[in-house]
């Protein structure tokens, strides 16, 4: 191993957009490529919000890494849940298949190599749309409370492996997670229980566990936005699983800036908030915009 190479144990997550070929057929190359790019951007935000890092983009697939395998599993749940709430222009839901494997990998020149990467890629290929598969080795690396989100499947042969690979499925649908009593907020690093909003001369604090917080042009909203581009009930903020989530249901959409990500556009979609950033109702975030909402997760 050279000086530029470093071996470390990490959880490798591949998120592969399912049905991308049919998406190109339905929408055409330009529209499909744009839709895939927007979706991968939203997945990147979820990864960053859960202590992960994007290693690289491979066509319609993202390769990510996490120091903590529990963060990788939680990320996969949020990704599926986020995409399940949005549709492409043709009315179909975009979905991903996700594979996760925890093990030693070699980091070199901002890339990862080794057996853990290969196993994660092969596990991803076995997953169906809206499904996350992982390995017994990954589950063994989890704390007991985090293992309850997985269920054992079968053993399957994998190319390049002499032994059968024991697979586990990660349960992500909210109703199933409730039944399994997943203690996400207790075991998740970077959880936020307070969100501070600043708009004009107003500063508001939202606590975790309360009712949804509404914002928009209508006087009945908890934060009234005095912009003609804001919808009467532009959006709301909910606290879920230790994170604040912005949900847009406006006519003109919402622009959000997060750490290292500027002007991410949402329209009838949702996005977890983390760190500090800016929300803009109906227009891009720029210095001339007088109706910017600054936020900070604490």
Number of domains: 2
Encode the helix/strand succession as letters: EHHEEHEEHEHHEEHHEEEEEEEEEEE
- Helix proportion range: 25-40%
Percentage of residues in DSSP E strands: 35-45%
Rg: 20 Å
The overall pLDDT average reads 85
User: CATH topology of the largest domain, anyone?
Assistant: Alpha-Beta Plaits
How many strand elements? 19
| Main beta-sheet annotation | 8 strands, mixed
Name the structural class. alpha+beta
- What overall form do the CA principal axes indicate? elongated
Overall CATH class of the largest domain: Alpha Beta
Termini separation? 41 Å
CATH architecture of the largest domain: 2-Layer Sandwich
Number of alpha- plus pi-helical segments: 8
What is the CATH superfamily classification of the largest domain? Nucleotide cyclase, GGDEF domain
The unreliable regions are: 175-189
Give a quick precis of the structure.
The protein is an alpha+beta fold. The protein is about 25% helix and about 40% strand.
Question: Could you explain the architecture of this structure?
Answer:
With 298 residues, the chain is an alpha+beta fold. It folds into 2 domains: 5-187, Alpha-Beta Plaits, CATH 3.30.70.1230; 194-297, Tumour Suppressor Smad4. The chain has 8 helices and 19 strands. It has helices at 20-27, 29-49, 69-84, 115-126, 136-140, 144-147, 174-179, 184-187; strands spanning 5-18, 52-58, 61-66, 95-108, 111-113, 131-135, 150-156, 165-170, 194-199, 202-207, 213-216, 223-224, 235-240, 243-248, 254-258, 261-266, 270-273, 276-281, 293-297. Strands 1, 2, 3, 4, 5, 6, 7 and 8 form an 8-stranded mixed β-sheet that branches. Strand 7 (150-156) and strand 8 (165-170) form a beta hairpin. Helix 1 (20-27) crosses helix 2 (29-49) and helix 2 (29-49) crosses helix 3. The radius of gyration is 20 Å and the shape is elongated. The termini are far apart.
């Amino acid at each position: 191993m050279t000086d530029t190479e470093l071996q470390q144990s990490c959880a490798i997550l591949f998120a592969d957009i399912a049905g991308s070929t049919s998406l190109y057929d339905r929408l055409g190359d330009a529209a499909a490529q744009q839709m895939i790019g927007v979706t991968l951007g939203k997945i990147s935000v979820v990864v960053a919000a859960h202590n992960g890092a994007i290693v690289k983009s491979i066509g319609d697939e993202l390769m990510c890494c996490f120091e903590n395998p529990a963060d990788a599993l939680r990320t996969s749940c949020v990704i599926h849940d986020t995409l399940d709430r949005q549709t492409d222009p043709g009315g179909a839901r975009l979905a991903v298949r996700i594979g996760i494997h925890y093990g030693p990998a070699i980091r070199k020149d901002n890339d990862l190599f080794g057996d853990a990467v290969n196993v994660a890629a092969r596990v991803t290929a076995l997953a169906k749309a809206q499904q996350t598969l992982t390995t017994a080795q990954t589950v063994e690396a989890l704390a007991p409370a985090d293992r309850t989100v997985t269920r054992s499947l079968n053993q399957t042969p994998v190319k390049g492996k002499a032994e059968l690979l024991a697979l586990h499925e990660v349960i992500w649908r909210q109703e199933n997670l409730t039944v399994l009593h997943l203690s996400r907020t207790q075991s998740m690093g970077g959880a936020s229980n307070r969100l501070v909003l600043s708009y004009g001369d107003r500063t508001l604090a939202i606590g975790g566990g309360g009712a949804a917080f509404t914002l928009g042009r209508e006087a009945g909203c908890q934060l009234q936005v005095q912009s003609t581009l804001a919808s009467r009930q532009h959006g709301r903020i909910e606290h879920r699983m230790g994170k604040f989530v912005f949900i847009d249901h406006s006519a003109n959409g919402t622009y959000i800036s997060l750490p290292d990500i500027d002007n991410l556009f949402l329209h009838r979609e949702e996005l977890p908030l983390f760190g500090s950033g800016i929300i803009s109702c109906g227009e891009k975030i720029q210095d001339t915009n007088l109706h910017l909402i600054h936020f900070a997760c604490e």
